[in-house]
Amino acid sequence: MKKLTREEPVPVKKAIVPKLWKSFLFRNIVYAAVGLPLLVLIINFILLLLTQHNRTFPVPDFLGLTLEEALAVKEAKYLRLEITDSVYVMHRQRGTVFRQVPEPQTEVKNNRRVLLVINAHSPRKVMVPEVVGYSLRQAKAVLLSQGLSIGKLSYEPDIATNNVLAQYYKGRVIRQGSEIAAGSEIDLTLGRNVELGQRTVIPSVTGLSTESATDLLLDNSLNYALHYDASVKNYADSLAARVYRQLPSASPSNIWNLGTTVELYLRP
Predict the structure, then answer these.
(1) I need a labelling partner for 249 at 20 to 30 A (CA). Which of 102, 184, 210, 265 fits?
(2) What CATH number was assigned to the domain covering residues 56-119?
(3) Which residues contact 225 (CB under 8 A, 6 or more apart)?
(4) Domain 125-267 carries which CATH code?
């Protein structure tokens, strides 16, 4: 019998990895550990190409340009220009861009859609409603709903104040159902109860836009005259203009006759 004189080392089992590799679970763990990071890198790279991350440029100003002129703008070749609607705006050149989305100077990426609204070559026709017998406030709402606006207010003695007695277009009586251009002004003759001596106040409209100022004056039974500063060069400037002076000045008491004209001075 062999006698052991010293402790002999236990033999180390070799080829552990090859044995583990034969395991389906082990192989999938290795594949996942290596493949997932690589897949994430590939996906991120593809997304960067598709979304053009951090690669933007400002949208050009197409307002006032014809479609042909807009397409000729250098940056337009990186965009998709689409006409979505047309409107008719008086005092604005026909066939030009009236509105755009996104607005000029908005940062966008390549191939972004830019929606354009074109000012039509001819005005849209609308039917004139009958507002005789309505109050001034009611007549204003009805005319606006039809795409029309109130022009000059004139007053005649009547039992009911601010009751519409007649409606006119370009100096002539306009009947219900007549077709005129959208945006046209309808002049109104209104009643005023002289016995009651009704008068109105002049509100402060300094700092307001043309639309807000004229709306407020009409609500107070007043006429208005617009005077634009020399800095107002085009229709867009007039839209941005604000009242910087009014004559007469605002009054806190009812001392003004209905139909008084307020002179408005505007600038951008």
Answers:
(1) 184
(2) 3.30.10.20
(3) 261, 262, 263, 264
(4) 3.30.10.20
